[in-house]
Backbone:
């Protein structure tokens, strides 16, 4: 593990994104409810839980107490965009937590879609933004999409945040 004891705590934020691609029309499957929980809500919960368990899943990852985790899922017919934002005031970053949240939310969507599309896939699992710490702010260059606009416009926590 990297020694972070000499670093001062700073506000750190990370955003990761992925895309679930399917040949099926995802709308119907993803909005089905079982025991009052839709697939999209289950994916959000899986992502939040994944972020909280990152240090148990990824070797040598620091165990941290997250201040905020938000998982957003946008369904567009054959393409489902997933975004995870993690935030903390700490000595170490939250990039792995954002990536893990995004990956587990996407895997949950794949699980639901496999029954109608065995070719469903997760693509473009990528870190898009990080801020805070010694290295400062970094943002991946790329096309602006709906997730970016939704997150930039949102300053208040939504129900899917923990």
Residues:
């Amino acid at each position: 593990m990297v020694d972070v004891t000499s670093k001062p705590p700073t506000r750190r934020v990370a955003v990761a994104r992925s895309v679930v691609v399917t040949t099926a029309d995802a709308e119907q499957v993803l909005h089905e409810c079982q025991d009052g929980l839709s697939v999209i809500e289950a994916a959000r919960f899986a992502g939040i839980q994944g972020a909280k368990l990152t240090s148990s899943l990824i070797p040598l990852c620091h165990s941290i107490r997250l201040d905020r985790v938000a998982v957003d899922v946008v369904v567009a017919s054959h393409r489902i965009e997933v975004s995870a934002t993690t935030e903390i005031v700490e000595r170490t970053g939250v990039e792995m937590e954002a990536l893990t949240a995004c990956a587990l939310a996407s895997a949950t969507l794949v699980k639901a879609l496999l029954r109608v599309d065995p070719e469903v896939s997760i693509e473009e699992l990528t870190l898009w933004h990080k801020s805070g710490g010694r290295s400062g702010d970094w943002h991946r260059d790329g096309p602006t999409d709906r997730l970016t606009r939704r997150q930039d416009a949102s300053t208040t926590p939504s129900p899917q945040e923990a």
Notes: Residues 95-113 form the longest helix (19 residues). Residues 80 and 133 are 32 Å apart (CA to CA). The longest strand covers residues 10-21. DSSP finds five helices and seven strands in the chain.
